[in-house]
Amino acid sequence: MLNKTMTEALNRQLNEELYSAYLYLSMSSYAGSIGLKGAANWFMVQYQEEMAHFMKFYTYINNQGEHVVLLPLAAPPSEFDSLLDMFEKTLKHEQHITSCINDLVDLALREKDHATSIFLQWFVTEQIEEEENDRDLIAKLKLIGDNGQGLLMLDNEMGTRVFVPPAQTGA
Ligand code: FEO
User: Fold this and answer.
1) What pLDDT is attached to residue 168?
2) Is the separation of the CB atoms in 122 and 56 below 8 Å?
3) I need a labelling partner for 44 at 20 to 30 A (CA). Which of 25, 80, 144, 162 fits?
4) Could you tell me where the DSSP H helices lie in 34-147?
5) pTM of the entire structure?
6) Domains along the chain?
7) How far is the CA of 97 from the centre of ligand 1 (A)?
8) Is 90 in the pocket of ligand 1 (CB under 6 A)?
9) Is 97 in the pocket of ligand 1 (CB under 6 A)?
10) Exposure string for 73-84, b = 16+ CB within 10 A, e = fewer
11) What is the mean predicted confidence (pLDDT) over 85-104?
12) Quick one: 10 exposed, middle or buried, by C-beta within 10 A (0-12, 13-18, 19+)?
């Protein structure tokens, strides 16, 4: 059972996850348009991950006897200065999501909602990995600088990323 406060907060996060998917879909398209097909693949996998996060909230809310409320989505940026710019924006966005998840955990504890607290633990761990991936790529891109060959090698590496659906634990 979810109380009203918790349901509304989970619903807001569900919409944050949908916006994340929207943002990475935009980045995927932009990366492809400037010839970075590997980066386009990387962001498309990220889009799929965000849709999986969205579905985790969707399923959890429904399994707890409530229903989701889909909200209007803001338009994500559609132009970027460089791949480094895209990853700096990605890291900033993921830090925002981490903060949202932390606030949700705080709320679940305040509301004594232990089921939701357990459900959210998966996201707490996931955010560590998300931020680490972004920091790693930002560091590589800074090392590469203006070296086109280095960028193409990294782009090739990014082209190998594949989507692995997360386990439906807690959902
Ligand atoms: Fe759903 Fe990128 O956190």
Assistant:
1) 62
2) yes
3) 144
4) 37-63, 83-110, 114-144
5) 0.96
6) 4-158 (1.20.1260.10)
7) 6
8) no
9) yes
10) eeebeeebeebb
11) 98
12) buried
